[in-house]
Design brief:
This protein is an alpha/beta fold. It is built from eight helices and seven strands, in the order H-H-E-H-E-H-E-H-E-H-E-H-E-E-H. It has a single domain, classed as Rossmann fold (3-Layer(aba) Sandwich).
Length: 193
């Protein structure tokens, strides 16, 4: 079964069981971002049942890969099954465990990070992955409309630290924060490079 069919199936299941997947509307924006930025490596924090991992993988360049982290054993098992059915398991590596423990052990850089896990820990996730962000990395955070009071420290940091150029995309019922890493150009290079 291919990716589109699986995504549809998950949407129907999410509707019935009130699963907090990103859904088709926000998902469309996420897919467009991946197509625009063409990341080679994505880190997803919070897999749930694999909806966004499949969506991201489907829009990745051929050589791209996703590492997705999930702390709930039942969700991890369902996600593994959905990813297998989508035929994209060659692009998606799912790891079971706590993101805050796993992130420091991951090798290499990430060009794109999607955060959709424990809302109060968004800032901790970001700070754990920050040393591993590539030069022009993009960080996308879900639920910044619905749960903004739980992640105020994250929003303050990503909007005001000077390290990111950040904007909010409002969907009415919720919002996502899209933050592009800002690279400070050395003075000489700026004028003479």
């Amino acid at each position: 079964m291919r990716a589109q069919e699986i995504l549809k199936e998950i949407e129907i299941q999410a509707e019935k069981e009130s699963l907090p997947i990103i859904g088709p509307e926000k998902g469309k924006v996420l897919a467009e971002m991946v197509r625009k930025h063409k990341p080679q490596r994505i880190l997803e924090i919070g897999t749930l049942v694999g909806y966004s991992a499949i969506l991201l993988a489907e829009n990745l360049p051929e050589s791209g890969e996703i590492i997705t982290l999930e702390i709930s054993q039942p969700s991890f098992e369902i996600a593994k099954e959905n990813i297998k059915k989508s035929g994209l398991e060659n692009k998606i590596k799912i790891i079971f465990g706590s993101a805050l423990q796993i992130i420091p052990t991951l090798d290499g850089e990430f060009d794109f990070v999607f955060i959709d896990a424990e809302k109060k820990e968004y800032l901790q996730y970001l700070q754990a992955v920050e040393p591993k962000l590539s030069r022009h990395a993009v960080v996308v955070a879900d639920n910044v409309g619905k749960f903004n009071e739980k992640m105020q420290d994250f929003l303050d940091y990503i909007r005001n630290s000077g390290k990111f150029k950040s904007r909010t995309i409002d969907f009415g019922y919720d919002a996502i924060e899209v933050s592009e890493r800002k690279i400070k150009t050395p003075f000489k290079e700026q004028f003479f490079g």
